[in-house]
Amino acid sequence: MDFNKLLGKKIVCRCGMTHYCPIRHVIIEKNAISKLSGLLDGYQNVVLVADENTYAVCGHRTEAQIGARLENKVVYSGEGFLIPDESSITALNTAVSGKTDLMVGIGSGVINDLCKYIGSQRGLPYYIVATAPSMDGYASVGAALVIGGMKVNRPTGTAEAIIADTEVLRNAPLEMIQSGYGDIIGKYSCLNDWKFARLVRGEAFCPWVHDFIQETVQHVAGLGKKLLKRDGESIKTLMEALVCTGIAMSYIGNSRPASGSEHHLSHFFEITGILDKKPYFLHGRNVAYSTVITQRLREELLTLDNPVCRSFDRDKWEREIHRLYTTAARNVIDLQRKAGWYELDWQSLYTDKWAEIQELFAGMPSSVSLEHLLNTVGLSMDEFIREYGEAKIRDAAVYAKDLKNRYTVLWLYWSLIGEDGRFSSDSG
Q: Burial level of 338, CB count in 10 A (0-12/13-18/19+)?
């Protein structure tokens, strides 16, 4: 794929926006790491960032490419999931000096986000050497962090270079390949949410970016069985799709084209897992499973003849937020008070738009077909249910929306059905 057509050029779009992605280099090929030294001209003091697992994959090769330019390195523990919280941020910020002129991260989601955030805070460029085709944030603006127990997205720039050795990607842990596939399948949900938000709330929308992502999804959706076998070309196609989706986010300036209700559920499982010290799946796997769940919510909403909004019991809602989010509950409540959406009269909007909402939801792939796609890459909803249980999944369907101030189908489900729903995480 020729990424040069997508990078470094201002695209004046009919949507009214001017799209631009400042990334300078995207290299996705065999032995891509060998190209790193040729991209270091002008840099003299490089900080290397990895964790013990990613450093073991290609740290020595990357360090050899940096050579005498290496000023310092940060290697986080490889035990458990690395969390991009205050502690991790401080560790990297401390390692960067006044002389540092470039960071080179080795890893995927969290390492990329940490480099992205510190780079933005310190005015430093960074490169990312990808170790897995596991998520779509390599090329995006914004860093996903955990601050005060809340999943937050901080505005940042992008990487200057994305270097992805296809042999490294092909040999990544299978769950990370599944995670990347799941992140792409999640676009079925988030693109529908984006159109839904435009319909109901008049949010900014770009048909060209929407179609660009939709075409990218179509290139990957049928590759599940080949990805399961670690087919080299399919792995490359997946990585290209993940980078393309990140570029699309850069075009819009936020994650709206690639993150909707399915990501809110994923964040719920991650944040409650961190707060309760319980296990949770990788981000993209959570997104994959949550895509099926959010589609079941749409299908339940389609059974309603007319929209009738429920009354809002703030005291009950706050009790539930405290039960689920414990030490982070006050931050969640404050976020929703600022958003003010619980005070809005949604009834007239939903009544006026109901026929269009139904038509929009009816155009989605069925939850059964989405579940089949997950099965092709070795993901099973049974595993999802065993991990979290019916009660937690139901809580996510009702209260995950409160982690963000982004409008999705979760708000409609809350308004019309909520805890009274027939929702089940089991398609049977």
A: exposed
The answer to whether 262 touches 186, Cβ cutoff 8 Å, is yes
User: Both tokens of residue 163?
Assistant: 């270097």
Among the listed residues 334, 315, 288, 317, the one whose alpha carbon sits nearest the alpha carbon of residue 415: 317
Q: How many CA atoms lie within 13 A of 276 on its CB side?
A: 15
Query: What six digits make up the tokens of 318?
Result: 């706050």
The DSSP output letter for 223 is T
Please tell me the distance from the alpha carbon of residue 425 to that of residue 147, in angstroms, as a whole number: 30
CA distance 126 to 129: 10
Tell me the pTM. Answer: 0.94
Integer Cα distance of 38 and 33 in angstroms: 10
Main-chain phi, psi angles of 128, to 5 degrees: -125, 125
Paired residues of 162 in beta bridges: 26, 128
Q: Which domains does the chain have, with CATH numbers?
A: 3-168 (3.40.50.1970), 180-420 (1.20.1090.10)
Q: What is the CA radius of gyration of the chain?
A: 21
- As a whole number of angstroms, the distance between CA 139 and CA 159 comes to 7
Tokens of 391: 């009660």
In order along its 428 residues, the chain shows pLDDT tens digits of 889 899 999 999 999 999 999 999 999 999 999 999 999 999 999 999 999 999 999 999 999 999 999 999 999 998 888 999 999 999 999 999 999 999 999 999 999 999 999 999 999 999 999 999 999 999 999 999 999 888 888 999 999 999 999 999 999 999 999 999 999 999 999 999 999 999 999 999 999 999 999 999 999 999 999 999 999 999 999 999 999 999 999 999 999 999 999 999 999 999 999 999 999 999 999 999 999 999 999 999 999 999 999 999 999 999 999 999 999 999 999 999 999 999 999 999 999 999 999 999 999 999 999 999 999 999 999 999 999 999 999 999 999 999 999 999 999 999 999 988 776 566 54
Q: 326: phi > 0 → left, psi -120 to 50 → alpha, else beta; which?
A: left
